[in-house]
Write a structure and sequence with these properties.
The protein is of the alpha/beta class and 395 residues long. The protein is 30% helix and 24% strand. The chain is elongated, with a radius of gyration of 23 Å. The N and C termini lie far apart (47 Å).
């Protein structure tokens, strides 16, 4: 598929609902021939763009380099297709490998088994040639391989990212079910926040939304905190070029700007607020983010308007009545305290969202882990009216 290292067809893996945001990011980096897919965006670029994507993209999970595609009918045809690839082009017998597998097919049901089958095919090819097999390294292999089987087509790609790009490296403290950093960045970008008006998360938890907003405001690349990417261990195809990487990294650091954005968080739990403050400090954005220990209902919004983003409990650990009361309280708080703000809620609890009781202007489908959610916008103009008094509004 990719005959010339100078001209590569690449794929960025995405969270459902953030594909279009990711395509805009790619365009700004110079990607060409951009195409949107379900949970992915494909594009054309070179080795330098691979490095830039891993360093700069806020809404990508992985950057893949597809190298082969073939049809499969069963386990044997998958094994044969993998073994037919000349793996010496990509790794040596003394290198290590790791395989990730994603299945969207009726042919196979167990991704770990298919990954094992592919590993056997690669190992058998080297054993036939050298009577020696490469080792498996699940943490930091020389070559991480990504298999995607869709219906009867298997796509084989090299994973240039290594560890998922959502693992920025700045979170030292997390709470139960913390928000994925890629999703947090995507939500901030979806709001259209102008980077100079107020941005508030009155239920900030670990502080992820606040930190991602600060990175966006100061133009700090999300890969700034990482010192290891998968492409840094490549030694054959697209062999790592440390001088090229250093030039790209230095140029990114030069574009960081000193700003004083108005980013505020609120958290009712002292322990959770402490963790959020530690994460903010660890991310080196404590001069941009302020966290207050207070209930959502008591949060004093600064004048001037701006954006509110909230990620409330969805109901998995709350009973129905408590969920409905919480969401009704959010609607009341928006109306009383956030006049002049665009207020956004992400939630998978469609029933509880009705109890917010305010007319929404946008409802964006987005995934949070395995949960299908809506990212809902409420424009709080002066005089915004509640939609209901006694019963919840219809969605």
């Amino acid at each position: 598929m990719n005959e010339s290292p100078e001209e590569l067809r690449l794929t960025a893996k995405a969270i459902y609902g953030l594909e279009e945001v990711l395509s805009f990011e790619l365009k700004k980096l110079g990607a060409r021939d951009i195409e949107l897919h379900n949970r992915a965006v494909s594009f054309t670029g070179d080795k330098g763009l691979i490095y830039k994507c891993n360093l700069h993209l806020r809404t990508a999970l992985r950057i893949l380099v597809p190298v082969e595609k073939f049809n499969v009918q069963d386990e044997q045809s998958l094994y044969d297709g993998i073994k037919a690839i000349d793996w010496e082009k990509y790794m040596g017998v003394d290198d290590t490998l790791g395989i990730d597998c994603v299945l969207n097919t009726p042919l196979f049901t167990h991704s770990l088994f298919i990954a094992q089958k592919a590993k056997d095919a690669i190992a058998d090819q080297f054993r036939d040639r050298y009577n020696k097999r490469p080792s498996v390294d699940l943490a930091k292999p020389t070559l991480r391989i990504h298999l995607h089987v869709y219906n009867d087509v298997c796509t084989v790609a090299l994973d240039s990212s290594g560890e998922s790009l959502h693992k920025r490296g700045y979170r030292s403290q997390v709470n139960l079910a913390p928000m994925n950093e890629v999703l947090a960045a995507g939500l901030v970008l979806l709001t259209g926040w102008n980077r100079s008006s107020n941005l508030i998360d009155p239920m900030c938890g670990s502080g992820t939304i606040l930190i991602e907003a600060a990175l966006i405001a100061a133009n700090i690349p999300p890969g700034y905190y990482k010192d290891d990417f998968g492409f840094m261990r490549w030694n054959r195809f697209l062999a790592y070029d440390p001088e090229l990487w250093q030039r790209i990294y230095d140029a990114a650091i030069d574009r960081i700007v000193e700003v004083s954005p108005k980013i505020y968080g609120g958290e009712i739990s002292h322990n959770v607020a402490r963790k959020a403050k530690e994460n903010v400090k660890f991310a080196k954005v404590e001069d941009m983010v302020q966290i207050r220990e207070c209930a959502m209902e008591d949060f004093e919004a600064p004048e001037g308007g701006g954006v509110v983003i909230m990620n409330p409990p969805y109901g998995e650990r709350m009973n129905l009545q408590d969920s409905n009361e919480l969401y009704a309280s959010m609607g009341d708080t928006f109306k009383k305290r956030f006049t002049g703000y665009d207020c956004w809620i992400i939630s998978s609890n469609m029933e509880a969202l009705k109890y917010v009781g305010l007319k929404s202007s946008r409802r964006i489908p987005v995934a949070n882990g395995h949960l299908e959610c809506r990212f809902v916008k409420y424009e709080m103009y002066s005089g915004t009216k509640r939609v209901f008094k006694e019963k919840p509004a219809e969605e």
